[in-house]
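Incident log, structure service

09:12 report received: a user says their structure output differs between two submissions of the same chain.
09:20 pulled the input from the user's history:
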Amino acid sequence: MKNVTLVLCCLYLIAGLPGCISFKVEPLPDPARILREVTLCREIDESQVLLEPGEAVTEFRSGKDPVICFLYLKDVAQEVVLKWKWYSPDKNLFKESDEAVINQEGIYLEAVTAYDRIEPEALTEHQGQWSVSIFLNDVLLTRLSFKVIPDAWQNQRLHVGRDIP
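09:34 re-ran on a clean worker, output below:
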């Protein structure tokens, strides 16, 4: 009888536990849901409440134009981590940004803007087809390609310099 009582008590405890414990796991944000815009541009307008990208372009002049990769995220309700990886024309990793941790408090943010950039001086020796990969929580969000071209003014100056005796 003691064994039966012990078995019944154990079954009662085991059967009762699932009703006492519950978990709610916050799903990771769906990148397609929160990404509203990704733009390559030369400048950022910082005069508004939210940053705004300049004109979208895909060609940048070597030594003259910074390359800016701008993101606009919408409806961010939990912490997200952004990272940019820049690849030079030889397909090697040229620059990897630090992780940008957004919304550490886990509150609802209607809109978030972020960007990373490469300064013009870094591009002088690396003309050709580049790419930048953007990651959200270590998952590839998108990849963009752009071209770094010689600055026409530099070429004209070099040409004129050859003609001077």
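09:41 both user submissions now match this output. Likely a transient worker issue. Closing.
09:42 reviewer note: The longest helix spans residues 2-20. The longest strand covers residues 139-149.
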